[in-house]
């Protein structure tokens, strides 16, 4: 057996083992892990400093999961946007492909809590069907391997998938979303890095929520991926009593940059059933962005997004302080120190300005007055046509 498999096998999955280690009630844990499996790798277990701390809350089952009965299993409506099993096609040019439902740890707040860690996920032929779908859809230029955690697949299977994807000419980017480097760093072997290298451009977005997760071993694992030429991003979920604090977030973002990982998204927690005790107010995330932007390296500031309930996709949010007002004469701005500045508008005519985003008044919630983004930009060709008809003659 490969070393990392042995280490994964040494994880805590049985309620009794967890109960013995921390003096908990095994019966209560058993009830929770029935519907929602548990796994805690040695790396993560060793990072827990005290009962109830930020690492503990992410991985130790909590009775609140079962008490959350009114919420929905699939608030993002991923299942409804799935043309073939395990593939979610929500955006015009990119798709999400769930290649496994196994994870190194089972995060208690997982958006796909309905799916992860249960037996019998990928059925024979399903991956082939997903790849056939990608092959048939030439508008897809970006595929995100997700799950579950793609890096838990054995090397030969991961390589088979990457190789098949690279036979599709219109597919430009392959991304992998993973929590493995932060929880099972031993999995990032030289052999894995050699495989990944062959199929560039491959991007990875790694899941990290707390600065304590960036141990020296974890940083070294990220370094191996970076050395293999993989641009690394981070996805962080805003979680109550884990990281809902500007100072913790600042430390996390700094640790990520030290690990050669660029913060990408900060997610507002989803409404998934069994996870609602992790939700914060939206203001918490906005305040965190305000505490970062301008106060530290711009590299350290992720995009704060809400994945809209009902399948609306990711919607970015910025504190609304920065743009005080905007009209044809000027944009009045406020910086991170609360100082005001005026940026005079260009007086040149015949530019390519969009008619609607100019006036602050247009931001008001008036769905009928303005075409939706989708209406204005049906596809890449549509964009060009629209630009020509509305933007005037650029040579004027
Ligand atoms: C997040 C997500 C993507 C990728 O979104 P980006 O903003 O391009 O990172 C694609 N498809 C689905 C279903 C997603 O949830
Ligand atoms: S690693 Fe990702 S997919 Fe797996 S349980 Fe955690 S959040 Fe969910």
TrEMBL record:
UniProt keyword Transcription regulation, yes or no: no
Enzyme class at the top of the EC tree: isomerase
Listed Gene3D superfamilies: Aldolase class I
Modified residues (N6-(pyridoxal phosphate)lysine): 314
Residues in Radical SAM core domain copies: 89-300
Range of residues in the leader sequence: none
Cofactor (UniProt): pyridoxal 5'-phosphate; [4Fe-4S] cluster
Superkingdom to which the source organism belongs: Bacteria
InterPro entries in alphabetical order: Aldolase_TIM, LAM_C_dom, Lys_aminomutase/Glu_NH3_mut, rSAM, rSAM_sf
Protein name per its UniProtKB record: L-lysine 2,3-aminomutase
């Amino acid at each position: 057996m490969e070393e990392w498999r042995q280490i994964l096998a040494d994880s805590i999955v049985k309620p009794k083992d967890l109960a013995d280690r921390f003096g908990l009630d095994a019966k209560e844990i058993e009830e929770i892990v029935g519907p929602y499996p548990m796994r805690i790798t040695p790396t993560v277990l060793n990072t827990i400093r005290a009962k109830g701390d930020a690492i503990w809350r992410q991985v130790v089952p909590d009775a609140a999961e079962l008490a959350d009965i009114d919420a929905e299993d699939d608030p993002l409506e991923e299942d409804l946007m799935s043309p073939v099993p395990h593939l979610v096609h929500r955006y015009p040019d990119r798709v999400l492909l769930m290649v496994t439902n196994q994870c190194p740890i089972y995060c208690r707040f997982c958006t796909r809590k309905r799916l992860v860690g249960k037996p019998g996920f990928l059925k024979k032929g399903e991956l082939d069907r997903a790849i056939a779908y990608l092959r048939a859809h030439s508008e897809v230029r970006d595929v995100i391997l997700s799950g579950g955690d793609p890096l838990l697949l054995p090397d030969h299977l991961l390589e088979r998938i990457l190789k098949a994807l690279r036979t599709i000419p219109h597919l430009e980017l392959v991304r992998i979303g993973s929590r493995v480097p932060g929880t099972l760093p031993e999995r990032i072997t030289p052999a894995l890095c050699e495989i990944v290298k062959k199929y560039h451009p491959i991007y990875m977005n790694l899941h990290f929520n707390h600065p304590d997760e960036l141990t020296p071993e974890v940083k070294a694992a990220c370094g191996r991926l970076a050395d293999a030429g993989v641009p690394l991003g981070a996805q962080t979920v805003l979680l109550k009593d884990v990281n809902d604090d500007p100072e913790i977030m600042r430390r996390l973002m700094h640790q990520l940059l030290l690990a050669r990982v660029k913060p990408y998204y900060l997610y507002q927690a989803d409404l998934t059933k069994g996870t609602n005790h992790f939700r914060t107010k939206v203001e918490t995330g906005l305040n965190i962005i305000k505490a970062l932007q301008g106060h530290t390296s711009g590299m350290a500031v992720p995009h704060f997004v809400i994945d809209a309930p009902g399948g609306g996709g990711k919607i970015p949010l910025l504190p609304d302080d920065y743009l005080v007002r905007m009209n044809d004469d000027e944009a009045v701005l406020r910086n991170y120190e609360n100082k005001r500045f005026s940026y005079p508008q260009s007086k040149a005519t015949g530019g390519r300005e969009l008619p609607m985003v100019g006036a602050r008044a247009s931001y008001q919630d008036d769905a009928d007055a303005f075409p939706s983004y989708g209406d204005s930009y049906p596809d890449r060709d549509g964009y060009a046509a629209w630009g020509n008809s509305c933007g005037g003659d650029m040579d004027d």
